[in-house]
Design brief:
The protein is built from 10 helices and 8 strands. It is α+β, with helices and mostly antiparallel strands. The strands form 3 sheets. It has a 4-stranded antiparallel beta sheet, sandwiched between helices. The protein has a two-stranded antiparallel sheet with strand order 1-4. It has a two-stranded antiparallel sheet with strand order 2-3. Bound molecules: flavin mononucleotide and iron/sulfur cluster (2 copies).
Length: 262
């Protein structure tokens, strides 16, 4: 278990860890703060985050804590609002591939997304190989039941049109055998898409293929050895489009039970 205990020399007995831990793993029996390692820890790291003295002792998590000196920068409502409004689903891509270090930055965004009970079971497959992407497209088309539809797609393929992934050079597939990941993957992909936007990359959720691959499991199994559930598919690449404004959206239907103060 990564949380090992408390550095009693640094601990100022403030009790923040007791109030914060969602699993009730800290207590103060005899005037000293105790970490009870017999209880369940979901590794959420909230004790590490909240301790003012950095007194929580933990095992190597292959990551380090991020200090908040410049917190104000990324918490600006205006900056986030602009990002949320300006991010579009991109359906026109350059053929140019995204360098690995940028793909890794997008994966980092997934890594820090919230996860139910902090159970980090989602796996991510990134397909950047043209032949593999073509194999996937062709396998999907070959599996479509309606002959008429199949022929229509084949015609598009001859015109070099990618009818599912919009010729994006990268496909992310999030998969696992944990049902909760159906929710977690939605958030993970949202984080990835927002992160991608800040890097000048375009992305789009490809829900139709996700449903199709889950209904026809042999495709992902044969091509990528994925035999669990696919919870999200996202494409990524450099957009060929430029937007000049964010479109308007209808008002959010909201009901207040008791009006908040003005
Ligand atoms: C789908 C989902 C369901 C969650 N349900 C609960 C919940 O019922 N109770 C709770 O305390 N936290 C819940 N959480 C919060 C997670 O436990 C939390 O995101 C995770 O421990 C990581 O901590 P962080 O969000 O501070 O990074 C949920 C998170 C997600 C994404
Ligand atoms: S990591 Fe989370 S669950 Fe574990 S002890 Fe710290 S606050 Fe509690
Ligand atoms: S939050 Fe840190 S300083 Fe405060 S009681 Fe817990 S371990 Fe001690």
């Amino acid at each position: 278990m990564p949380i090992k205990g408390i550095n009693v020399d640094s601990c100022n007995l403030c009790g923040e860890c007791i109030n914060e831990c969602p699993m009730g793993n800290f207590n103060k029996p005899n005037g000293k703060i105790i970490f009870d390692n017999s209880r369940r820890c979901i590794l959420c790291g909230h004790c590490i985050a909240i301790c003012p003295e950095n007194a929580i002792i933990y095992d190597d998590m292959k990551d380090s804590a991020l200090d908040f000196e410049e917190k104000d920068d990324y918490q600006s409502y205006n900056a986030i609002y602009k990002l949320l409004r300006s991010k579009r689903s991109i359906r026109q891509y350059k053929s140019q591939k995204v360098p690995k270090n940028m793909i890794e930055k997008v994966i980092e965004c997934i890594r820090y997304a919230p996860v139910g009970m902090n159970k980090r079971t989602l796996k991510c497959l990134v397909i950047s190989h043209e032949t593999k992407i073509n194999d996937l497209i062709d396998s999907i088309i070959d599996t479509i039941e309606s002959e008429e539809e199949r022929e229509e797609y084949k015609k598009k393929r001859k015109e070099n049109i990618d009818p599912f992934f919009y010729n994006a050079p990268h496909i992310f597939i999030l998969h696992s055998n944990n049902d909760w990941d159906s929710k977690n993957a939605v958030i993970a992909i949202t984080y990835a898409m927002l992160g991608a936007e800040t890097l000048g990359l375009g992305s789009c959720w490809i829900g139709g293929v996700q449903i199709f691959l889950n209904e026809n499991k042999e495709i992902a199994k044969n091509l990528f050895s994925i035999d669990d559930e696919i919870f999200g598919i996202m494409i990524l690449g450099y957009p060929t489009v430029k937007y000049y404004r964010a479109p308007p959206r209808p008002p959010m239907e909201t009901e207040f039970i008791s009006e908040p103060p003005v």
